[in-house]
Write a structure and sequence with these properties.
- The protein folds into three domains: 156 residues, Thiol:disulfide interchange protein DsbD, N-terminal domain (Immunoglobulin-like); 214 residues, no CATH class; 56 residues.
- Helix content is 46%, strand content 16%.
- InterPro entries: Cyt_c_assmbl_TM_dom, DsbD_gamma, DsbDN, DsbDN_sf, Thiol_diS_interchange_DbsD, Thioredoxin-like_sf, Thioredoxin_CS, Thioredoxin_domain.
Length: 605
């Protein structure tokens, strides 16, 4: 008996161990959406709590959580802060993991009222689910009795959109880990709602810490640096015998007053941007913002002067002069007022930063960015106040060069925005054009230098300009054949009937069906890193290529996904010459070119 038991245990262990050797690379262990994001709700009179229990290795997108009511009204809920997630194609997004609870306050609800809740999430392994929608009944929430209390009743079941069928009965296989994938990240919500780069503080080309360096740089422009000795004297109130600690304290208070104004301005602009987040991502709006940034850059180049009206500047200056220097309160007020007075050198960079944070919709990012910007501008003032003018560099033409350099920095922002519209190839050409212009200007500016290290710098600048021009050379002198052959030629189908007809018309050839959506980052990775390689294209030369675009998640898209038993994207199906799907060949999740080529070689004829 003991020998039989041991034999059975060994057989079970060996079966489990060897089963993994025969797993198919494309097979999925992803769970259905209702298991990855278990949704529930609880109602109590005017309050309803929406709860998501998020499975380990999965996450929800903050921007994709949407509520709408039928025959009811509710206060706009305040979503908690999440964690930032970055990917190559869409930039930064705010996501939730583990558990999310959203309280919603109802203001009214008629009999039979409902609350429609929509969300979308993805897996860390590069698998994105279509948007999910559930309908929550609200009739019990405001059905008050005579004593003003809502009758007690058990939680109602959630009535939602049709769930997708379970996946095909294939052996599970862990999805490719992030380390096995190209330098991209997971999936992203639907494109119409995307900031195209997220705009969530989003996809922004530099972190808030750069604002500190920009502020320090602005301090050395010709409109700002010569003013520091004068401002220092006003802050000290004409006192020459103040202790170092007292002078440092007064200068710090002045800078904090200025920083307070900038911080408040940043938070207000970020809050306003949050209200128009979707509009800020429209191509026409992005083009308009780019035009504004270009005008701001031109003002830094000296083509025109941009500043507050002189009458308003005069009023603010008079208000500042009424404050008493040498006292903490007066110095703080002077700093706060000074934050409102924009010189020609600071107006353009400040406007650019404000437009930058308006896209983020993040109050803390907006306030923090402007605070660091003001702190950077104030650091030289603190040094001058404590140590005197001996620390200041001598004025000269170099200050105008600093101002011009910031014009190029501002020009980087429209390139960043337009890259979302014109695509990666043209975006690279725009970056190339900007880099060539900057390095060429810097090289020409440095031609009068005579010191050895400056000569070396000239060589570096010239080399950088020559390297940067490469994308423009390829565009001007190279035929665009490589770009034309970069992607597979798919035949689009959109319904079950169209798919059946396409399979029937394959005429005995094998078929590959790619399910694609704009909100699927891994689908874009397939296009960029896998389908574009010659080895994959060669392996598929005798295969009929079909593609379904389910970006809109329309009823016919849902029906097609249900018919094919697809949980989410990316998913690639293979059909034999008789039009029958080969479940063992199904690919779920991203595969690089080498792995996908091996998968194609191993598929059944």
């Amino acid at each position: 008996m003991a020998q039989r038991i041991i034999t059975l245990i060994l057989l079970l262990c060996s079966t489990s161990a060897f089963a993994g050797l025969f797993d198919t690379p494309g097979r999925s262990n992803f769970v259905p959406a209702d298991q990855a994001f278990a949704f529930d709700f609880q109602q109590s009179q005017h309050e309803i709590n929406l709860t998501w229990q998020i499975k380990e290795g999965y996450y929800l997108y903050r921007k994709q959580i949407k509520l709408s009511a039928a025959d009811a009204a509710f206060l706009e809920p305040s979503l908690p802060s999440g964690e930032w997630h970055d990917d190559e194609f869409y930039g930064k997004s705010e996501i939730y993991r583990q558990r999310l609870t959203v309280p919603v306050t109802l203001t009214r609800a008629a009999k039979g009222a409902t609350l429609t809740v929509t969300w979308q999430g993805c897996a860390d392994a590069g698998f994105c689910y279509p948007p999910e929608t559930k309908v929550v009944p609200l009739s019990a929430a405001l059905a008050l009795s005579s004593d003003g209390q809502a009758p007690a009743r058990p939680a109602l079941p959630v009535v939602g959109a049709p769930k997708l069928n379970p996946p095909l009965p294939v052996e599970p296989r862990p999805a490719l880990a992030l380390a096995e994938r190209p330098p991209a990240a997971t999936a992203e919500p639907s494109a119409p709602e995307r900031p195209a780069a997220a705009t969530d503080g989003s996809q922004l080309p530099f972190s808030a810490l750069w604002a500190l360096l920009i502020g320090i740089g602005i301090a050395f422009t010709p409109c700002v640096l010569p003013m520091y000795p004068l401002i220092s004297g006003i802050v000290l109130g004409g006192e020459r015998r103040l202790s170092t600690a007292r002078a440092l304290l007064l200068a710090f208070i002045y800078v904090q007053g200025m920083a307070l104004t900038y911080t408040a301005l940043g938070m207000v602009v970020a809050a306003a941007g949050l209200q128009f987040q979707a509009a800020l991502q429209h191509p026409y709006v992005l083009i308009g913002l780019s035009a504004v940034f270009i005008l701001l850059a031109l003002s830094m180049f000296g083509l025109f002067t941009l500043q507050l009206p002189s009458s308003l500047q005069t009023r603010l200056t008079l208000m500042s002069n009424t404050q008493r220097g040498g006292s903490a309160g007066g110095v703080f007020a002077m700093g706060a007022i000074a934050g409102l007075i924009c010189s020609p050198c600071t107006t353009a960079p400040l406007s650019a930063i404000l437009l930058y944070i308006a896209q983020s919709g993040n109050l803390w990012l907006g306030g923090g960015t402007l605070y660091l910007y003001a702190l950077g501008m104030g650091l030289p003032l603190i040094l001058v106040t404590v140590f005197g003018n001996r620390l200041l560099p001598k004025s000269g033409p170099w200050m105008a060069h600093v101002k011009t350099a910031f014009g190029f920095v501002i020009l980087a922002l429209p390139v960043f925005l337009l890259e979302r519209i014109v695509g990666e190839v043209w975006g690279l050409r725009l970056w190339s054009l900007l880099a060539v212009a900057f390095f060429s200007w810097a090289f020409i500016t440095s031609l009068g230098a005579t010191r050895p290290w400056q000569r070396i710098l000239q060589i570096v600048l010239l080399a950088a300009a020559l390297v940067s021009v490469r994308p423009l050379q390829d565009w001007a002198f190279d035929a665009p054949t490589t770009q034309q052959q970069a992607h597979l030629a798919f035949i689009r189908v959109s319904t079950v009937d169209e798919l059946d007809r396409a399979l029937a018309q394959a005429k005995g050839r094998p078929v590959m069906l790619d399910l694609y959506a704009d909100w699927c980052v891994a689908c874009k990775e397939f296009e960029k890193y896998t389908f574009s390689t010659p080895e994959v294209q060669q392996a598929l030369k005798d295969t009929v290529l079909l593609q379904v675009d389910v970006t809109k998640n329309s009823p016919q898209d849902v029906a097609l996904l249900k018919h094919l038993r697809v949980l989410g994207l990316p998913t690639i199906l293979f059909f034999n010459a008789q039009g029958e799907e080969q479940p063992a060949q199904r690919v779920t999740g991203f595969m690089d070119a080498a792995a996908f080529s091996a998968h194609l070689r191993d598929r059944q004829p």
